[in-house]
Design a protein that fits this description.
Blueprint lengths: L2 H10 L5 H15 L5 E6 L5 E5 L2 H13 L3 H8 L3 E3 L9 H10 L3 E9 L2 E10 L10 H52 L3 H15 L3 H14 L10
Antiparallel strand pairs: 1-2, 1-5, 3-4, 4-5
Helix pairs in contact: 1-2, 2-6, 3-5, 6-7, 6-8, 7-8
Length: 235
């Protein structure tokens, strides 16, 4: 299997979390794009942060930009366009960042925007310790990799949301079942209506500062312990 295919497959076969997808993307970048020594992913959010990285050089270069407030990865993420730095030693756009990045070992970099669900959310950053490691011909490859990672990460997020929703629905159904059972016990024991039994549970919930499901479970457990649960067949 070609290296590129294996690298892309590893992104798809990660554990499914967005973080895992992005980490595998960084690893894939070092494997399939010539000249890349280290790679990272910047996510903007409330504040920019590095969520995946293959080494300290990349992480330090990212963090220098966050601290200073400008640099190639931030420009790519905010403006949604690729930013190529062929030789940081001659770079004039971000002089403060350039000095710090050179001290971290960076000499060249390429940052391309990263999208989730069609919206730019950050950047994929490629770093090298030698000048002219990247040129314009590599931009398309980096773009394609970032796009692929964004699609996989978005699907992963949607899958995670679907799983979470299913779990919430399951919990809701379980809660409803135990509440209905508790209502039945109170209706039988107190000779009250379903509405009155429900209000009694709500009152217990408020007085004990516990969720309605917890109160209902306690009612059912107590009735079961006494052998008088709602499903008891004894007369």
């Amino acid at each position: 299997m070609p290296v590129a295919v294996r690298a892309l497959a590893s992104i798809m076969l990660s554990d499914g979390s967005r973080t895992a997808v992005l980490q595998r993307t960084c690893e894939a970048a070092t494997a399939i794009i010539p000249g890349v020594e280290e790679a990272s992913v910047t996510i903007l959010g409330d504040r920019p942060r590095t969520v995946a990285s293959t080494g300290t050089m990349a992480t330090q270069a990212d963090e220098a930009q966050y601290r200073i407030g400008h640099g190639p990865c931030l420009e790519a993420a905010h403006e949604g366009r690729p930013v190529l730095v062929t030789d940081l030693g001659e770079e004039q756009r971000w002089p403060v960042y350039a000095r710090e990045a050179l001290e971290s070992g960076v000499r060249a970099s390429l940052s391309v925007p990263l999208e989730f669900g069609g919206e730019t959310a950050g950047a994929l950053n490629l770093y090298a310790s030698r000048a002219d490691a990247f040129d314009a011909t590599m931009v398309d490859t980096a773009f394609d990799l970032a796009h692929y990672a964004g699609v996989v990460a978005t699907v992963s997020d949607e899958r995670d949301r679907a799983v979470k929703l299913a779990e919430e629905l399951q919990q809701a159904m379980q809660s409803r079942a135990v509440i209905e059972q508790a209502k039945g016990i109170l209706m039988r024991d107190r000779g009250c209506t379903a509405e009155e039994a429900f209000h009694a549970l709500v009152r217990l919930s408020q007085e004990s500062h516990q969720k309605l499901r917890v109160v209902a479970t306690r009612v059912v457990d107590q009735a079961t312990a006494k052998g008088t649960g709602a499903d008891s067949t004894s007369s």
